[in-house]
Amino acid sequence: MKLQVVNEVSALPVVSLVPAGYSAGSSALSKLEAARIAGEAHRRARLSIQNIIQPGMTLREIGEHIENCTRTLIGVGYNGGIGFPTGLSLNACAAHDTPNPKTADRVLQENDVLKIDIGTHLDGHIVDSAFTVAFKPEYANLLLAARDSVYECLKIAGPDTPLKDIGEKAEEVIRSYEVVIDGKTCGVRPVLNLNGHTIEQYKIHGGKYVPITKRSGNRDRMVEGEFYAIETFATTGNGYVREQGDCSHYALVNKNARSSLEGGRSLLEYLNRTFSTLPFCKRYIGPEVKSPDAYLAHLVKQGAVEQYPPLFDVPGSYVAQFEHTLYINSSGIEVMSKGEDY
Questions:
Q1: Cα 37 to chain center, whole Å?
Q2: What percent of the chain has pLDDT over 70?
Q3: 152: buried, middle or exposed (CB in 10 Å: 19+, 13-18, 0-12)?
Q4: Main-chain dihedrals φ then ψ at residue 283, nearest 5 degrees
Q5: Are 196 and 190 in contact (CB under 8 A)?
Q6: pLDDT per residue as tens digits for the range 143-197
């Protein structure tokens, strides 16, 4: 039983969505037009994986299927339209995990709760949207807590909406659920130190954050012309995540950085040329780059590259995530990533 979809939906064709003759960075499309294409690519890529995902698949197979769909659907600009590494975070891991080359053969199990976080972009206008897959019915309420809290937050989003109101609504909905796992009843709570965010061109995390708890102290408001990722995390754990494990997510944060090492300079040139400031992972670094692990660690130490390790709640817990990207317009919102599935 795949609980990530509300209704059975047919896979949409995986064909290029980019206008014929279009070249990245040509300014032929407005930011909204570009984001709408990225949103349609997101819908088609995720529907494609939803139609085939099952226990026994490796995380590498899942990630590469999604990423190959994105490259076919967009296929222009930095990283072929992939906005960030496909998040494939299992069970107590809430976010920022994707298979590294040495650990990519981990197999999806029937009792797993898998967060699938997909980013698509055209000209750096990123659509960030996530859903959760579970096969056991006892996880249903956990998934519903995350999904329904996003839906309720979207209902109150719009020009001048206080972001604290989003956080209050998210926590209210999440805490209204409980789950029974292995015969034990467990309350569901939001993850205190995770939140949504604004999205800027070529910058997945903008200057504002969107809380998912009541006591955030956030005084910002939504403003017309902004893009937001509204994402919620519902957990059976303590509701607080910590960095743990082998890092897979990175981003170039200083495009003008310099390195005294020849290998560092080569890697910087490669990152600028291939990803710009979009997040990337070790799987994306091509074979032409020599000793990438060593020089990546060097660039992190130099402050040229930021690392984003996996984020875990307590062992034995389960975390669910849902997320939509929306645009604030004069009359309300446009949800760029909404589809028939969620």
A1: 17
A2: 96
A3: middle
A4: -60, -25
A5: no
A6: 999 999 999 999 999 999 999 999 999 999 999 999 999 999 999 999 999 999 9
Query: Using alpha carbons only, what angle is made at residue 161 by residues 279 and 42, rounded to the nearest 5 degrees?
Result: 35
Cα angle 137-139-145, degrees, rounded to a multiple of 5:
125
**Six token digits for residue 181:** 């796992």
Residue 307, helix vs strand vs coil: strand
Alpha helices per DSSP H over the chain:
31-50, 59-73, 140-156, 163-174, 262-274, 292-302
Using DSSP's 3-state secondary structure scheme, residue 280 falls into: strand
Quote the DSSP letter at residue 29.
S
Q: Which domains does the chain have, with CATH numbers?
A: 31-246+309-335 (3.90.230.10), 249-307 (1.10.10.10)
How many Å apart are CA 115 and CA 143, to the nearest integer?
Answer: 10
Q: How many CB atoms lie within 10 A of CB 219?
A: 8
User: In this structure, what token pair is assigned to residue 20?
Assistant: 């014929």
Angle between helical axes of 292-302 and 262-274 (0-180°, round to 10): 90
Q: Residue 267 CB: number of other CB atoms within 10 A?
A: 25
212-247 confidence digits (pLDDT tens): 999 878 899 999 999 999 999 999 999 999 999 999
Cβ partners under 8 Å of residue 256, min gap 6: none
Residue with structure tokens 């199990």? Answer: 109
Q: Provide the token pair at 201.
A: 């061109």
The one-letter code for the residue type at 282 is K
Our CA angle for 154, 35, 218, nearest 5°, is 40
DSSP string, 95-127: ES----TTTTTPBP-TT-EEEEEEEEEETTEEE
Of 158, 154, 150, give the one whose Cα is nearest residue 224.
Answer: 158
Q: What is the pLDDT at residue 253?
A: 96
Per-position b or e across 291-320, b if 16+ CB within 10 A of its CB = ebeebbebbeebebbeebebbbbeeebbbb
